[in-house]
Amino acid sequence: MTGFVFRKLLRTLFTLFLVVTFVFFVLRLTGDPVSAMMPDDTDPAILDELRKQWGLDRPLGVQYLEYWFNLLQGDFGNAYRDGRPAIEIVAERVPATLKLTLTAFAFIVIAGFPLGIFAAVNRGTAIDRGIMTISVTGFSLPNFFLGILLIFLLSVTLRWLPAYGSDHWYNLIMPVITLGTAGAAVIARFVRSSMLEVLNAPYIRACRARGMTERAIIWTVALPNAAIPTITIMGFMVGTLIGGSIVTETVFAWPGIGRLLIDAVTARELAVVQTVVMITAASMVFANLAVDLLYLVIDPRRRYASGTGE
Amino acid sequence: MEGPAEKLKADYSTPLEISGLTVSLKTKAWKCAIVEDVSLRVRSGEILGLVGESGSGKTVTCLAALGLLGPAWQTEGEIRLARTRITDAASASQLVSVRGREAAMIFQDASASLNPIEKVGKQLTKTVARLRGVSTGEAREIALDLLRRVEMPDPEERFHSYPFQLSGGQNQRVMIAVALAGRPELLFADEPTTALDVTVQSQILDLIKSLRDETKMGVVFVTHDLGVVKEVCDSVAVLYAGRIVESGSVERIMNAPRHPYTLGLIESMPTLSGHVPEGIEGQVPAPDKRPQGCAFAPRCDKAQERCRTQLPLGARSDGGDSVACFFPLEGNLGRTERPELSSHSRPADGPSTDALLSLKDAACDYDTRRGKFRAVSGITLSLNEGDRLAVIGESGSGKSTIGKLMLGIEPTSEGTATFMGNPVPILGTSDHIAFARSVQLVPQNPFLSLDPRATIGSQIEEPLEIHGIGTRQERRARRCELLESAGLSLDLATRYPHEISGGQCQRAVIARALALRPKVLICDEATASLDVSVQARIIELLRELHRMHDLSIVFITHDLRLARSLCSHVAVMRSGQLVELGETSPMFEAPEHPYTSQLLASMPDVEVADSRTMETMQ
Ligand SMILES: Nc1ncnc2c1ncn2[C@@H]1O[C@H](COP(=O)(O)OP(=O)(O)O)[C@@H](O)[C@H]1O
Ligand code: SF4
Ligand SMILES: [Mg+2]
């Protein structure tokens, strides 16, 4: 078991290394922070002076090595403007994003699973078709469009919810629906087809033959079996949620790292951008690791196949 | 009016009574009867064999009796278990209270019939607790006890295994234990041993018999193998195209069948004493294409005008003898001896000068995730011109690997494979193309080896085209010749694989294999997916081809009876080793290796030859 986790962890770290390197070079090759910060008509001599001061005049390779050198000591660099440590700037924004994405994740599971199960159990009926139609719609609506639609409907027209703000629980409602609907739709479809496959399996018929009630079969036999393959999708979902949170936070002026990223890219705050990217990339690869480990925990066949059984 | 699933005065002496049962598949637009007018009775302690080829409605009948068919099905007639009447109108809760308690069911694929992610002990414990209403602790004890009763090896340890960690036979034992959990009065066993190796099959059959003796439960034993019927059943009901065509005691049916179909089935069974199976021409009609009148008429050589228009009175399986035929057969089964195929006797392992295909000390390794796996080793055998060599053994014993070595699909890891004095070229090399003209494979599943989008005719011609043989006209002529020699009518040439039956597909595969006039045909379980009546006709075809074209055959099979009916020599494989090799009749009469005797003793046979019983007793 430990050997397996260790190999996975090594691969995870390697992925992170690639992400950091990629972001470092792309950012520096696509524009520089000094010209982004100063007005267009600034004297070039001043710009050069600033560049020198921030160490941007040295060869890229040197900057890159220095970046790693600092990173390994826990130094993520400072913002150019106010000189605060980038990690600090990012850290203040993390709770808001966590709150948004975790709630959205819960929404996805709580809405997606029951809908999928319900559709599968009522296969081919109007209920099934209804759920699937909603799911296709939910999946094909772009994030930002759904967000604007919600604001228009719930804030502007009905005046039920404020369009902005993040202090109350009800401020979460619209962003979570915006962020989670597509995921819930995907999960519902996936759970449905997975359930249908399992419900046709010989062991379900055998359960019926020994007098288990349909309800017991669905919840204690079919669902656990059908849930196993959905874990992979849940892993992907973490990435989708993080990507989606950038748009959602911008639409709802949510003070999370998604919006911070947009601002930082515009201002060419390289250290901040890199820190955000690294944190999101880390959470995605660790989500993948968690998926792999979760498989081992709940699917005995994998546990034994990977030689990690008892 | 009687209410649905009303509780009856318990009749434990007759745990199953079905009368006039018709089961149909129904949609808005049409309705098609799958099972028609079936009447059966099973007494407690009786094992009733429900026999018939695939699609005859055996499984549907069992599922209907437990109310397990889905909403698309409609049942008419009466089904009565020990205490309960089952009807379409029975509520879900009524059915649930019957299943497992009054009647239980076991299935063909036991490994797929258990929840794959739950330990077998836990599944068993839960079922015991639910059906007997006892605490989990008590249920655990009972569950362990049940595992002991089904003779599970190391029950305490197996209790904590998942289904994928157990063998097919062990999983079937678990399924039987689960079925016993609710102490049912009746057990439906739907081909419970069909997927198992013969030695395991014989253990499971013994187990079912002894549990029947112990619990006095009635058993409906579904099978297509009359050898198995002879082994376990007390009475038999023969199903053809959804109707019972004959029923009676097992002795009467096996010794003096009265329905032509029953006779055909018995004649289709190869036996260990060398009966050469005779098949039945034609095929079982699909449920929506059943002829009016007697459904067997198109295949029956006794059919008269009347048979085609009128329906013979249905047979009932209610203890007495009964047959649904206007012209039932009289008298006992008389066997017409058929000519033995020529066989020049010789030791099959000796260094023979005129060996066509031979393996010498051959071994074969497969690469697996855990390193190399040696599938067979130290194999020495040879095939001379005109030989028919059977390779027999249980699943995983290395039979197919021997075929692959002979075909050059796998290289030998040690030793040599030679064809006419030269090493067998490996698939993918240029030499292999020429070699493949002489040695051809007939695989198990004909549908998989035919291209679904090409006509049968063009596929038979294909090898000729690939090798650039003959002109267009000559190839056409050869195609007709091939179709004819494979026993296919010429108009099948324009059909696609899905438009013809499994037996016809296998004939087409054989015709294609013969296109290049090979010297050797390697048949890997070539008849295993076919019905017995069709299998018998393929065996007949192979015998004929051998006689007419002096074809040498390697016949890989798990069925010793087939080996006996077709082959001149037999190689017995066990765990990758060749344990016995020799001529068929002497070996079957006096096997030298204990494993061969064990295999022979396990093989269910419609004729229990006295000589064999004597052999195994000595
Ligand atoms: N779910 C189903 N849908 C449509 N046809 C079916 C279904 N199950 C069985 N049949 C048809 O019913 C007939 C009898 O099937 P079955 O009882 O399984 O036969 P057996 O068990 O004797 O092989 C076959 O022709 C089969 O094609
Ligand atoms: S009724 Fe006629 S066709 Fe049917 S089995 Fe008897 S003889 Fe043959
Ligand atoms: Mg069946």
What is the fold's blueprint, element by element?
The complex is a heterodimer of chains A (about 300) and B (about 625).
Chain A: H1 2-29, H2 33-37, H3 44-53, H4 60-72, H5 86-121, H6 126-140, H7 143-157, H8 173-199, H9 202-209, H10 214-251, H11 257-267, H12 270-298, H13 300-305
Helix pairs in contact in A: 1-12, 5-6, 5-8, 5-10, 5-12, 6-8, 7-8, 7-10, 8-10, 10-11, 10-12, 11-12
Chain B: E1 16-26, E2 31-42, E3 47-51, H1 58-65, E4 73-81, E5 85-86, H2 92-98, E6 103-106, H3 120-132, H4 136-149, H5 155-158, H6 168-180, E7 186-190, H7 198-215, E8 218-223, H8 226-232, E9 235-240, E10 243-249, H9 250-255, H10 260-268, H11 305-309, E11 322-323, E12 355-368, E13 371-384, E14 388-392, H12 399-407, E15 414-419, E16 422-423, H13 430-438, E17 439-442, H14 446-449, H15 456-466, H16 472-485, H17 502-514, E18 520-524, H18 532-549, E19 552-557, H19 560-566, E20 569-574, E21 577-583, H20 584-589, H21 594-602, H22 610-617
Parallel strand pairs in B: 3-8, 3-9, 6-7, 7-8, 14-19, 14-20, 17-18, 18-19
Antiparallel strand pairs in B: 1-2, 1-4, 4-5, 9-10, 10-11, 12-13, 12-15, 15-16, 20-21
Helix pairs in contact in B: 3-4, 4-6, 6-7, 7-21, 10-18, 15-16, 15-17
The complex binds adenosine-5'-diphosphate, iron/sulfur cluster and magnesium ion.
Adenosine-5'-diphosphate (ADP) binds near residues 54, 55 and 59 of chain B.
